[in-house]
Amino acid sequence: MARFYYSRIASITKLLPLLLGSSHPATVVSVYAAGMEAKLYPEDLSLRQPSHYSYFQARSHIVYMHTCFFEELAKRHRGQLRLVHIFPGLVVHKGMYSKDNPWWLRFVFTKVLPFFGMNMDLEEVGHRMIALASQTIYPALSSGETAPSKDTIKGADGELGSGAYALNGKGESAYPAKRYVNLDKQDLREKVWGHTTLALKQTRAGGKFEG
């Protein structure tokens, strides 16, 4: 979780003064697992309970927390930030063929997943990620004075042009609304914001975060 969530948010917040100083809305793109929310433990966001932790459970929490933190950032800095969390698919690269990987993993990467069309070309994905920074269909959250265009993508809250976006590899909305039906989204946003800002404050001061 430190690698895929806390360190990313730490980098974004550290660079925030520069991002907000731009004359145009700045774009943040985080490549991970957008749309893959599953089970959630709202009272144990960092999964301190051993029985709560697994790779897939950590991934689920990271995605929920990305969505909520990005939404809150977009609301706090209207018109200044476009925040994108995207799952591009399985990207084929040289590391997959490395002999440092066990033979069965190389077989899955190079034979099984391509057979099912689950592999993405590295160069193509690179172009798509760069394009996210310039496409106007992912606008910053407006002040409400102008209506979103018909091409605007739904944000991570299900609303057009909300400034925070969860996307699939094609740049389409991957927001799983059904995962949030029984959640108090506002309460979850506040919990994630408070949890994350406290973690960053304590670690930046040289302390140990135990929340």
> What average pLDDT do the residues reach?
90
Query: Uncertain segments of ≥5 residues (pLDDT<50)?
Result: none
Write the element-wise H/E pattern from the N-terminal end onward: HEHEEHEHEH
How are the strands of the biggest sheet laid out side by side? 1-2-5
Distance between the termini: 13 Å
Annotation field: number of helices: 5
- Indicate the overall shape: globular
Radius of gyration: 18 Å
Share of helix among residues?
A: 25-40%
Tally of domains: 1
Multimeric status of the protein: single chain
Strand residue content = 5-15%
Please give the number of β-strands: 5
Helix/sheet category? mainly alpha
Main sheet attributes: strand count, strand direction, barrel closure: 3 strands, parallel
Q: Can you walk me through this structure?
A:
The protein is built from 5 helices and 5 strands. By secondary structure, the protein is mostly helical. The protein has one domain. A 3-stranded parallel beta sheet has the order 1-2-5. The protein has a two-stranded parallel sheet with strand order 3-4. Helix 2 packs across helix 5 (185-204). The model has no long low-confidence stretch (mean pLDDT 90).
Q: What would you say about this model in short?
A:
With 211 residues, the chain is mainly α. Helix content is 40%, strand content 9%. Strands 1-2-5 form a 3-stranded parallel β-sheet. It has a two-stranded parallel ribbon with strand order 3-4.
